[in-house]
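Example 3.2
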Amino acid sequence: MRITGLGHAGMFIETVGGNIICDPVLGPSFFGSWFPFPDNRGLDWEKFGAEADFLYISHRHRDHFDPKLLQCYIRRDIEVLLPEYPINDLEQDIRSLGYTNITYAPAGQVIERGDLKIMITPLRAPSDGPIGDSSLSVDDGTASVLNQNDSHPLDLDRLLSFGKPDAYFTQTSGAIWWPMVYDLPLDAKQNFARLKREAQNKRAMYYIEKVDAPLVFPMAGPPMFLRDELFAYNGFGKNGESIFTDQKQFITHLKELAPQYDGQLFVPGTVVTLENRALSSIEQTLYSQDEIDHIFDEKWEYLEGQRAGRQQEIRDEEAERAEPLPADEILAALKSWWEPLLKKSRTIRLGVGGCVRFRIGDLDMVVDFPKAKVREYAGEECIYWYTIPADLVSTNIRDHEIDWSNSIFLSMQFSVGRSGKFNEFLTTFLKCLSVDRIEYVENWYSEQTDQTEDAEVGDWVVQRRCPHLRADLTKTGKVDDDGILTCSMHDWKWDLKTGKCLTTTGHEIRAQRCPVTDDALRLGA
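Structure, written as tokens:
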């Protein structure tokens, strides 16, 4: 088996049963903000497209799903491996490009093509990517790999039922706009960014240790930001206010914490050959060692060169945007689009619990979640306030973009503030701007309330399933001496004495102290 890095989360897997091209992206994505790091334009994309037998797109985020690249390089009759998602947005996107040879991959079921075995493990929670993310397991008899990319699976036993992989490819960098775009003092951003990087490292290490593959390849980020106003957010940030760990930095971290795992660089042009279930060779075919050293050890100089040479791509993206609509037309469009969705969003409205302000060009607008209304701002107290360029919103209106996290928010071309904690319900609404998505999410939230099983975690009896994404807290939970429970899956925290979530609004937990037994009383005496 041979695996070639295509940049970001992209890879080309050559097996005895056919070749799989995964998440190929050239970018830039998210309104021209994200470029693959390092630059992957020098790859022979025509060759990869011609030799691919299967196309796998893990999820709908534009740093994984690049329609322009697919139209240029991937033939229309290729067999598409489609994750089993609760809504068909990704399938509609793929079919709109002319791909019809689609294999539906039931969750956790093995697809066989001769000696080749493939399994796709989808995730379906509201916070999983754009309501859906997935991982790919591949075994051709000579080797096996797990391409987890951005997904954060909860049921690892099910995922690993495919078999222990010989090589493991996983996200170790971030894909979020917090805290960079928030109106916070620099020292607060620096502290929050450090905590976010530590949480991302902790989560990556959790998966690495659970998967326990001998070979580990960090991938799926970080991006390059080449727009002038975003350039300082590369890596840890010019001023330490950013969250993006690069591949080499994480490999160093891995060697310090778990040297038993062989962490290896996986960049555009890296070719990993596995034979007899072991590493046969790793070679770099696009970059020399001197170039790789320059990219990672003199990163800001490399990024400056990229910025200087790629401004036309940014201008080309800007030219594709819609002309900014007048304020009254934006208000009318969002009112007619969002108010019917708000009326269907009882759980989300209660979860948001207040008004959210949007300043869009000349428009000053409020979304009143309790009353399910969109109207001009009239001085109401708001829990969140966004400032977004009118051309971005106008483009989303023109394209009827149903996921603003997959467009405006990950572009980081906006600013935001909030009066309290992070509100997951608000973010969920803004990525669910369609009837199908809203109805699915409302049903999903309703199902989460039926949590009857309890378990012991430390000295506490708590509901076994995490209120966030239903991780098994006997495996992911840890309670400190102050009664603070941390779920290692996403670093969310609860005060078990009160049941309140310390990370976001809502999501209370059921908990009580373990009963004191007679034996414990005797030991105490």
